[in-house]
């Protein structure tokens, strides 16, 4: 009653009380706000269930305490790892316990015995990175290895691409430690059937006895009804309980139980020697049916994997920048499907023999490059490790590649991973396509042809009732086909909310009753992740969908062009909804994405979490004004606009561009802060600041001014701002270099112009020294130098950025019209002409400027490859350590940096495997983002620079990157232009010295 008087419902008051209790007793994060709950309401399925709250425990004891408190308060508990489940396993309306942030250690490792014990939140790739130095790995290599946790993999009984050789998660799990809902902690491992090896007082003894008795009682039914395929991961693993062996492994009952039986705290794993040698044979087929029929024969050569890639996936991959070169190298002609056959024996000679046999077998099966379409085919042999890795990355990204369709309909996971015996695979897929066609759609297929388990997704729009009904009908018909072929309706991704409903038709009433008996015995109050495996809702209950009945996005006033996508806001809605929650942005190493998540490990600070918040906000699920709210700004606060997601997210979620829209909405509704004005308007006041440089730089020398700037402008007192200088880059001439030289435009960006003119001077020296005629255009009107508008975009001032770009286009367009390259030094500025400019202007002049915009290194590499670059370079150092700017990596413009540096004689080039430097324009100067900035830099960049000896050159093209390196290591980083100018000067000095000596001797 008191709660109602205070304006709160009893339910809300109870939730507040639960949150307060958890916060008092747990030191980890306790998240009950709407934004956080919304971020945990989805996984990689099409479901959305908002939890009551989220707990991120720091220790196992805290995780178990959260379980106890939730049980005491009558709340359900759902354990969660990477949140990549495709069937809705990790969503529920109780308390979600996220184990991925803190419970991610290897607890013990037995190298000789090839076993380890890990916490459930450890990510597979992270585990394997730590095992690799011991020559070991855990081989259940799921495509989501960069973010899938071992606990989640155990929960789903994951399989991976090489299960043909290594088996499933169940086959590689030796034991588990887990707590029942009542808090009882047990070890689940191998036991004798009479339990004589257990202590009589062991609390698990009675439970194990009941389970083994059930296995004996139902042994015949289990043999009769369980599918005879390796990839059967549906239901509870009752076959682990039968008397077929003298000993039974009780952990195998927990594997695949989807967190419904016990709360896992430790997992003991079987390890294998790392693969040292491998080769791939990419088998091409003109007919998808023939490819499927051939799989049963190809496996006789004993490969470790046979993976399907179909025509649709190849076509989509060619449109994704990171995959296009891989496909072009591995795919010949126009196949309807390819099967990637992998051999990985210890002896590479053995692998090469099998690769030859593969080609012979394809010939024996009647395939040839001159045959008609049905029997057209052949083998492309891949022995180069880099290309093998690229193909593996493309195959692993299959789900996200399929989801990259920019349309309302998307490939939907619900008959995703049915498995049938290999001899039936061709007929099954043919009939499945007929099912799709009957319901007005088509499907995409890829993945594990070696196991008869294809990832199959019909294209549907689940916002439409008719498509939801079609999904239901397709599911029923597809599962009937699977039963006819004596397969499994769940071959890899488990049951969750999608398939649990269908267990009775798959396993029969008796076994489903047994499943309920198991659940009741382990969890009598239904505390642990209810609604999965037993007593599930209908899979097509739209109240549980991400796009529920009535889901809509109202009119949005957007500033950028989103017309490539459907939906409100000129397509902004469709761009946001491209996130399918598969979590590729949660990877911890490799590439750049997502630097803030790598630093904090918070769901809030990853691209997926931000995209979910945006989707919920624009659809009204977070209340009015959510898009420009303080909570949304907090959600985006650590986004450094690195654009890595633009390149590395296979569905193309461009959070940097989306952030501009949010900042614009924020500026429109809340106005600008002093910091926004100082950052955004920098190009407008830079000239005055340069003329008053001693005064403008006073803040850096005064502790008092630093504190005042932090208080009133939010600029960290711990940072020195870039120093203005009076000798800014302001060349008198508009053209430099030989009159008859090839023309090039040099874009003098604001940052290098006012802070580091040495870089522009060096670029002029290099370009003119190479024989180029360099244009330095001035604006048609006014004396203020040209600018790309980058700083205005970072403050959400899109209209002001457009003004700057209009001035720039007017000056550069005449050169672009006659094919003159436009070259820039600062990646973020130059690449604005290839990115945001296209989102602000669609006219021919803008397109021409964007098409001719090149980074300094891209231009030099192009000239070198054409044989036109003549630079007399000299030796300056033995080694250079290079950090790539995020935008260079996002636009595929970093490789030219390495190529250009290797033109310097004797210079060894080493690239730092780094994500964002953490400075990211004004981000690293923020009082509220300084710590995160340093954390990002310390992940790999700063340690690598500190390891470099003093004679090694440190190279970084980004202004922000150079400042971060200096602040963190006191080392000076150089732009490539300065390195090349030094090299030219070395040659010139040597020539001058030699000439002087010759004159002297003469």
Draw up the topology in text.
Layout: H1 2-5, H2 10-25, E1 29-31, H3 34-39, E2 53-56, H4 60-72, E3 77-80, E4 95-98, E5 106-110, E6 115-118, H5 124-132, E7 136-137, H6 150-156, H7 163-166, E8 173-179, E9 185-188, E10 190-192, H8 205-217, H9 219-225, E11 247-249, H10 251-254, E12 263-270, E13 272-273, E14 279-285, H11 288-298, E15 305-310, H12 311-318, H13 324-330, E16 337-343, H14 348-364, E17 377-382, H15 385-396, H16 398-402, E18 410-411, H17 425-438, E19 443-448, E20 453-460, H18 465-484, H19 496-499, H20 503-507, H21 509-522, H22 572-576, H23 595-600, H24 607-618, H25 630-636, H26 644-648, H27 655-670, H28 674-680, H29 682-691, H30 693-696, H31 698-701, H32 703-713, E21 735-736, E22 742-747, H33 750-754, H34 757-769, E23 772-775, H35 790-794, H36 798-817, E24 822-824, H37 827-830, H38 836-840, H39 844-852, E25 853-855, H40 856-865, E26 879-883, H41 886-890, H42 895-901, E27 908-911, H43 930-939, H44 941-947, E28 953-956, H45 959-969, E29 973-974, H46 976-1001
